[in-house]
Design brief:
Keywords: Cell membrane, Lipoprotein, Membrane, Signal. By secondary structure, the protein is α/β, with parallel strands linked by helices. It is built from 10 helices and 14 strands.
């Protein structure tokens, strides 16, 4: 699992650069030389964040880490823009088009919510490469960056089954949508396969829609976690963006295990006071995918079409940063075996 651990070093939160106003009321951090759109062709990667924005210590921060890596390596100008409360697809489209018009290339929408906006914007700017994370958008100049979340979640389920003492574990999903169903399905399968059906999984979704705050409300995550802990869950896995911080807080308070998501949350500074309770994290190398797209454009061979990041290419994985991980009997070996069997095809991980 050593190679997976290296994956996560990119996905850490760091101090943001100076913020300046930009399209649709969002904010953009920029560095390097160049004027407002006058140096078209000299600007590089731009990302537009999903709900929760920068500072979620998870999904969006992983994308930002990819931007930082590209900025440092290629020495060009970058931009990252926050979402706004209650924004429409038209707002998202305007944001993407504004970045393309300014000369940024590629322009990445972080999250499936950018689907309709990206489909429209990419047609208006055919010479710009667009990327979308967690969704598939058709277009000759669009790269759809998708992940095998169910595979990482299966490994998280293996860890939960090995770590539980109560034989009850929990899953908290941010929003009840197909993407998060993949996390739940893989997790449940990993738990059941490892325990032989002896461990119970309690599942709960925070909201039916993203607009209700399922990915951006730590208080909702905390309340859900507390309810599961009352029912006996002693390992809690959250696939809920910013809301997952509330799950981790509740787990730490109750002295039970939490499993993070997307980034290695054991290493996140904002979660340092809870790190002792973060057993592991199901990793999703959003930063690596964003960087890979930026590099392809920089090299003059822009990626397009569906780009899948799975265990085989270390696009997903499981963190082992917490020293306690290695102390749980049989855990490391079980995870390593499961990973091998998923890659070989012996284990077929469910997505529903």
């Amino acid at each position: 699992m050593r190679r997976i651990s290296k994956l996560t070093r990119v996905a850490v939160g760091v101090a943001s650069l100076a913020l300046a106003a930009t399209a649709c009321g969002g904010t953009s951090s920029e560095s390097g030389n160049g004027g407002d759109g006058e140096s078209k062709g000299t600007k590089g990667l731009a990302i537009a964040y999903d709900i929760g924005g920068k500072g979620d210590q998870s999904f969006n921060d992983a994308a930002y880490a990819g931007l930082q890596k590209a900025e440092k390596e290629f020495g060009y100008k970058t931009a990252d823009i926050e979402p706004t409360e209650g924004e429409t697809d038209a707002d998202k489209q305007q944001r993407l088009e504004s970045l393309a018009k300014q000369g940024y290339n590629p322009v990445v929408g972080v999250g499936f919510a950018y689907g309709p906006a990206m489909e429209a914007a990419s047609k208006k700017f055919p010479k710009t490469t667009f990327g979308i994370v967690d969704s598939v958008v058709e277009g000759d100049n669009v790269a759809s960056l998708v992940f095998a979340e169910e595979q990482a979640s299966y490994l998280a389920g293996v860890a939960a089954a090995k770590a539980t003492k109560s034989n009850t574990v929990g899953f908290v999903g941010g929003v009840d949508i197909p993407l998060i169903h993949k996390f739940e399905a893989g997790y449940k399968q990993g738990v059941q396969d490892t325990s032989g059906g002896k461990v119970k999984v309690i599942s709960q979704y925070l909201t039916q829609t993203a607009e209700e705050g399922g990915f951006s409300s730590p208080d909702k995550g905390k309340a859900a976690a507390e309810g599961q802990i009352e029912k006996g869950a002693d390992v809690l896995y959250a696939a809920a963006g910013l809301s997952g911080q509330g799950v981790i807080e509740a787990a730490a308070k109750a002295k039970v295990w939490a499993i993070g998501v997307d980034s290695d949350q054991y290493k996140q500074e904002a979660l340092a006071s809870y790190k002792g309770s973060i057993l592991t994290s199901a990793l999703k190398d959003v930063g690596g995918a964003v960087y890979t797209l930026a590099k392809s454009v920089k090299d003059g061979k822009p990626l397009t079409g569906v780009q899948t990041f799975d265990l085989k290419v270390n696009g997903v994985g499981l963190a082992e940063s917490n020293p306690e991980f290695a102390k749980i009997a049989g855990l490391s070996a079980a995870v390593a075996k499961a990973k091998e069997e998923i890659i070989s095809g012996k284990i077929k991980v469910k997505t529903e």
